[in-house]
Amino acid sequence: MKDRKKIRIHIPGGNLPPVELRNIISLANSLNADFIEPSSRQEILFDIPFSGAANGEYLVKLKALPFSFDDASKPSTNLVTSQPVVDIYSKSSWVSEGVYLDILSDLDKNPSLKINITDLEQEMFPWWGGNLNYVASEKLGFWHLIWEDNEKNLKVFPELIYTNLIQSVSRDMTQAILTNKYSSAMKMSTDFKTFLQTQNQEKWKQKKFPRTEGFHRYGNKYWLGLFARDYKFPISLLESLCQISAQTQSAKLGITPWKTFLFRDIQEKDLPKWSEVLEKYRWNTRHSGLELSWFVTDQDEDAGFLKKKILKKLDSVDVFPAGFSLGIFSEGETQITHIKVERKYRFPKLKFFGSNYFIYFSNTPWNRASQINPVANVGTSWKAVETISNIISGKLDNLTTTKDEDIISIIPKKSRELYQCAHCLTIYNPEFGDLEQSIPLNTNWENVQETYRCQVCESPKSDFKLISLSAV
After folding, report:
1. Euclidean distance between CA atoms 370 and 108, whole angstroms
2. Distance CA 325, CA 328 (A)
3. For the chain, what are the domain ranges?
4. Among residues 222, 212, 303, 215, which one has the least CA distance to residue 259?
5. How far is CA 240 from the centre of its chain?
6. 10 Å Cβ neighbour count for 76?
7. Does the predicted TM-score (pTM) go above 0.90?
8. 3-class SS at 59?
9. Does residue 465 sit in helix, strand or coil?
10. Intervals of the chain under pLDDT 50
11. How far apart, in Å, do the first and last CA atoms of the chain sit?
12. Is 415-471 a domain of CATH 2.40.300.10?
């Protein structure tokens, strides 16, 4: 990657006709790109050799596309919408494909702040994914505006926003946030937690991660989600799928924030053709749910490597992280995850000389108003792996913060309730129990039978004394 140039193509709203993807694929192929990668912000990413970028020929080809583009090594501020799943989930919603298109036709294609436009009825896209979040209300043509202040707090604009005003409101809000000069209406905005108290909260949170992969029926049609473990899709596979789409003249294509491609409007009679392509490339559409909901920063090889280390660690201790999601991000990024690992470089611009890993945990990641608890600040990747493994394996259920040199870690309350034999100093740890005496893991001292004896000197249970962790 170090000898290659990264390219990012902005796909406003994430809606990409297959014929346009085919044009991007053809261009990427001509520039000797190896893979196509969808981003969490509904963009197309690929990299080309520096040798092919030196003469500027790639710029001429990119400018011929109907999309804006930039250097993918720089921060991204693209538009994101739930348009790719229109009709799949939100059957009763007034937000149609035409509504999205009308809004996108007015907005800047690459705004200074990330704008997120979603329908609350759908289940695929998080409503809080941007700095400015327009969420469809129950009132036809009007949107809630949930915005993020400079301290990352979510605020609810005091009035609903009419569709035709989204452009002007976005412009004014962006200027105010960037200059930190809030208008009177912004100052009157309600804290989102307060807002939830007057709303039907069930509509503002989702309890499970959506299906993002494989064939799924909706109505009398199907949609196909495609996921890649490393988020890199072979150009030949996508080329073949675009050919099938052209032959059947039915499928539409979108990019989801889960870094997946989504083909929809597939007719049942055409399913064998789509399946044949997937079989030809031996493409897996049955990944574990934990992989589908684990994120890393776009085109971040270090984050991807850390993700693999965590999965390897969990496998070594035979722990399956069902129900957990994890995200490994650069500083300031957000996504739907139970466990968030934020890497902060000591020299951010240079991105070397090490980094610290700040680890956070939330019980309800779909609802961003929920408490996000800081769990650890560790200085090495293996310490981050160990901490995350402990969270997922249940060793950190009851969290209490303590500090040990430069490592802020979480010690489970059960582990701190240690009992020590007064004679030989053997320690009973509730976390490990005493399997030789048929006492299972996580057995508290008060639940240990009175006939228990020290495994070393056979002293009775009454000779054990409660000690503090510092004493150990």
Report:
1. 32
2. 10
3. 89-123+125-204, 290-411, 415-471
4. 212
5. 28
6. 17
7. no
8. helix
9. strand
10. 1, 352-353, 398-415, 470-472
11. 47
12. no
Query: Of 166, 163, 164, nearest to 147 (Cα)?
Result: 166
Task: Please report, as a single letter, which amino acid is at residue 17.
Answer: P
From CA 2, how far away is CA 232, in angstroms rounded? 17
CA 380 from chain center: how many Å? 22
Predicted pLDDT of residue 404: 34
The pLDDT, as a whole number, for residue 277 is 95
What CATH number does the domain located at 290-411 have? 3.30.413
> Could you tell me if 82 and 57 are in contact, meaning their C-beta atoms sit under 8 angstroms apart?
no
Burial (CB count within 10 angstroms: exposed 0-12, middle 13-18, buried 19+), residue 11: buried
Structure-token match 């991204």, residue found: 76
- pLDDT tens string 43-54: 999 988 876 555
Nearest to 45 by CA among 17, 81, 74: 74
CB 369 within 8 A of CB 205: no
Provide the token pair at 299.
């085109």
Question: Measuring CA to CA, which residue among 305, 293, 285 is closest to residue 259?
Answer: 293
Sorted by sequence, the CB contacts under 8 Å of residue 106 that are 6+ apart come out as 166, 167
Under DSSP, the state recorded for 229 is: T
Find where tokens 């399946």 sit: 275
At 176 the pLDDT is 95
In this prediction, residue 18 carries a pLDDT of: 93
Short-list 427, 430, 409, CA closest to 419: 427
Tokens of 259: 């870094």
What counts of helices (H) and strands (E) characterise the chain?
13, 26
Tens-place pLDDT, residues 154-213: 999 999 999 999 999 999 999 999 999 999 999 999 998 888 888 777 778 766 778 889
HSE, CB side, 13 Å, CA atoms: give it for residue 466. Answer: 7
346 SS3 class: strand
Instruction: Tokens for 277, please give them.
Output: 């392509």
DSSP characters for 381-431?
HHHHHHHHHHHHTTTTSS--EEEETTEEEE--HHHH-EEEETTT--EE-TT
Tokens standing for 291?
Answer: 């992989």
The structure tokens listed for 341 are 């690992």
Q: How far apart are CA 448 and CA 442, in angstroms?
A: 11
Residue 31 CB contacts under 8 Å (≥ 6 apart), including other chains: 48, 52, 53, 58, 61
Written as one string, the DSSP assignment of 118-154 is E-TT-SSS-TT-SSEEEEE-SSTTEEEEEEE-TTS-E
How many other C-beta atoms are found inside a 10 Å radius of the C-beta of residue 463? 15
